[in-house]
Amino acid sequence: MTAALRFHRHLPTWRDGLYALALGAAIALCGTAFAATPVPQGPLVTTDWLAQNLDNAKVRVIEVSVNPGLYERSHVPGAVNFSWHSDLNDKVRRDIVGKEAFEALLSKAGVAPDTTVVLYGDTSNWFAAWGAWVFDIYGVKDVKLLDGGRKKWEAENRPLNNRVPEPVATTYRVASVNTQLRARLSDALAVAEGRSDARLVDIRSADEYTGKVFAPAGVPELSVRAGHIPGAANVPWGQAVREDGTFKSAEELKKLYAAAGIDGSKPIITYCRIGERSSHTWFALSKILGYEVRNYDGSWTEYGNAVGVPITNPAGTLWAAK
Amino acid sequence: MRVAGLFSWGLLAAVGVVAYALQALPGGRTLAFALAVGAVLGLVLQRSRFCFYCHARDWFERGNPRGLLALVLALAVGTVGYTVVLGSWVPVPTAGQLPADMHIGPVSWGLVAAGLAFGAGMVASGSCISAHWYRLAEGSLVAPFALIGSAGGFILGFRTWNVLYSATMAEAPTVWLPAHLGYGGALALQLAVLAAIAAWLWRGFAHEAPANVAAAHGVPRLGQAWRRLWVGRWPYWAGGLAVGLIGAFVIVRMRPLGVTATLGSAARALAQEQGWIPDRLNGLDMLAGCATALQASWLTPNALLIAGLVAGAFIAALASRQFAPRWPTWRDAGRGLAGGALLGWGAMTGLGCTVGTLLSGGMAGALSGWVFGAAVFLAVWAGVRAQAWQARRAGG
Question: Helices B129-136 and B52-62 sit at what angle, rounded to 10 degrees?
């Protein structure tokens, strides 16, 4: 008798039934395990949650990294890439991306009004946090950061690939622009001259803050004065995160900033060198602690170069002096 | 030779152990990958004697096209591979947008000058920078002089950079062929040009006596096949195929192949410390190519690629009994230093060498790669002619 004939004559037995039942149960279990879980409250999502929601049609993952080439080589499966240089900045004005270009960007990325946007990036989410600030200015409702960013995702050996998704385009429209999230030179100057009760947080390194160096190592000097805005407290951005790149708990953050005199009782302005890293602290203070915070994106490169504004430079360094 | 064999196995095991240890460092997976790829590349370069200068000289002097055909094959295979990868990175290529990290540089007369200098440096020193790295592993004591000379040439390049940048490079066009022709058009054009070059080179075979077609039939035993890997040299085409494949695979995990970034960075660090070069090199670190930006650590993918390349070539040289240290003469040393200086200046000004700019750039569809390559081969042609003329004069 040939194998084909034997197969043909095979009739279902109670054992086959058990197999089918077990298989069905396994599929059901897997389905439950991979089913989308509810979107968490609060401004952060965990790597665990994102791993379970990669196929969730209502979630759009967007990478905003500082270093070019990272996304192209590997990214969270299904993530879209936004370049901070060319997508989220205006290419001509020193400004964030314009409203129409932002609408086109989100439409192309398939973001709809009910989409949960999860941003993540390298260097503990520096520029992903800046992306979140831009998204907030343009009133995107449900924007979250992947806590720990690329660093934690990679450290946990979670899947990556280099396929570029092709989301179904939407027609995204910005409903309102919240300019209250931005501080301008005049706002920073008002604090320096005692005309405002806002509190300034300088998130650069202690050496930049005290004026010992004009710019961090390996970065071009973009300001002719070193030091900081008078009255600013110095809390380097890195103090807000743990070793694995995740934000410290709300309690720890509260203590950290309170020790520098920032307790949320007064409006806060964060700044750094070019205005991107300070968004990270803006995120911690406004999104996690709920304080009233504006990001000064002109930052030290604007303030330190502005004519007729006071600075504090404890180190007494002079630009171009030998 | 038993000892050499054992030593090469030992070295191979050591490369494996180092690669394993590297994985624990930040970015360690890429570092381990760079070391492993470097070792494979070194083995391939040494076994197939892949050398831009020797291949070009074989053609210009004797009409032997095999080496240049291997280069054409490497470019063709790499171009196809790059098209597949870049097509997923930048789905719709448009003017003004370049794929991250690819060696697509400005096309200017500065680039032509760089190619001519690099070609002249190859003629003077006896090979290009990548071949000097693998010859170092074969025990050549000329190679260190050429590499030291190259470091000096880099410093000269940094000194002349600001003037050249303002005069020619700042406003020069950066042409990425797929942005103008689409991926399909760029691929078709590049393959057509390569095919035309291959057809032209094929004429060289007409000079040769009819091949002995009575080649051995039958399948060699496994042991015989293994031994053949370590005797003589691999066929030219094997080198071209392997280099093209490695070039395309590498960009998925790290920056494109290049063999001068670490040398250039070290030269720049030294020269800056000594105050030999300007503090600010206008626009340099914004341009794509074999980046010479100062490194915070020696544990960079490019440094490990070079370390792997030298180790792989050393393993291959030992296993094939081609490790033959030779003391240089004063003339060798002089030619190494002078030729190296030209290589270094050309590689710095051209933002890479025959590997970084010609191969990696050409595979990516950069016009700069083709222009640099044309200038290099023009200089080699002139150099070979000049040498022949000198030899005739001396002989006559």
Answer: 110
